[in-house]
Amino acid sequence: MNINQIFFILTLLTVFSLTSCGQTQVFIPKEFVETVPPKAGSSEWYQLNHSRNEFAVKIIDRKLEIKKVEEVNECELNISNGKLVGVNRGEWGGILTFVPTDTTKSKVEIKRGNIKFIFSFKNKVYFIEALAHMGYNGGAIFVLDTTDNKFTYSLLVDFDDAPEAFAIYQDKFLIATQERFYVVQNFKKELIFQDTFWSSLYPNSIAVLDDKNVFIGMRSGIVKLDLTTKTLKFYKNDK
Q1: Which residue in 11, 46, 99, 115 has the most C-beta neighbors within 10 A?
Q2: CA-to-CA distance for 96 and 87, rounded, in angstroms?
């Protein structure tokens, strides 16, 4: 056996070992620097809070992509005969509306409230409502019945903290709220992180590679969560 054959075998063994152990290497751009998470309310935290940089995360072809984004206050979901439109204006309120494809028909107001997300899951339609203003901080997941365009909704899960970012991973919902992180499965919530440093850093997106590589985009940087060990790392970019 020559040296090239030995090197090839060792390389295969290394790859197999990493795969077997569930370890995945995720490249994080060098401008995002791993930093000790600041304490909410500290001078370091205020600096991050006043940054104009909002970063969103996605996983594409098993690679992490990060880009700057601006605030979005509307969401949509196409359904039969039209689309659902959700509006979130914070303290000024919002609304969930059905807009028919047939323009001769009128819009249908379904619910008043700040609508953060509208999505389909296992052939049903859901929406998430959230508000953090003055003394109120909360939100909820609702299921929406759209039968014959006669809209009714029911509360499934409520939160004592306003949902900010959301993703579906396998059969679970991952939700980053103002100060916490939840996993919701079978419409039962599990609190994974609480009293997090990202209060008022406005999480905007969640990207999932696997249970050990869950990323949250927010103001001034991104966070990497490991749901198996319930640990997090903060990567700052406040320039």
Answers
A1: 115
A2: 6
Return all residues near 142 (Cβ < 8 A) that are at least 6 apart.
111, 126, 127, 128, 129, 153, 154, 155, 156
Alpha carbon distance 105, 22 (integer Å): 53
> pLDDT 10s digit of each residue in the chain, 239 long?
555 444 444 444 444 444 444 557 799 999 999 999 999 899 999 999 999 999 999 999 999 999 999 988 999 999 989 999 999 987 788 999 999 999 999 999 999 999 999 999 999 999 999 987 766 888 999 999 998 878 999 999 999 999 999 999 999 999 999 999 999 999 999 999 999 999 989 999 999 999 999 999 999 999 999 999 999 999 999 77
